[in-house]
Amino acid sequence: MPQHKQAIKRVRQNEKRRQHNRKQRSKMNTLVTKVLETTDKEEAQELHKKAVSYLDKMTNKGKIHRNNAARKKSKLTKHVNNL
Fold it and tell me: Is there a contact between 76 and 35 (Cβ–Cβ < 8 Å)?
């Protein structure tokens, strides 16, 4: 465990940020899964729009790599188009 005040504060901040990032990644994965599990084309298109928007936000914030987001968006689009 850290001994200095600054290091103790850093541990607190890192844990808080880790929890926040984890929550955001979880939401992202949930949105992606909902799109892939949907069989109704209209509902899938609405969910696809939300998921793509959230993936773009995560990319812009630096939470995920842009290629990762592009791969997920491509997979979602392919699924929606095949319905």
Answer: yes
Across residues 11-38, what is the average pLDDT?
Answer: 97
The whole-number pLDDT of residue 48 equals 97
- DSSP string for residues in 54-81: HHHHHHHHTSS-HHHHHHHHHHHHHHHH
| Residue 1, pLDDT score | 82
Identity (one letter) of the amino acid at 14? Answer: N
pTM of the predicted model as reported, rounded to 2 decimal places:
0.87
Q: Give the phi and the psi of residue 50 in degrees, each rounded to 5.
A: -65, -45
**Which of these, 18, 19, 14, 20, lies nearest to 2 by C-alpha position?**
14
* CB neighbour list of residue 62: distance below 8 Å, 6 or more residues apart: none
Question: What class has domain 5-81?
Answer: mainly alpha
Question: What are the structural domain ranges in the chain?
Answer: 5-81
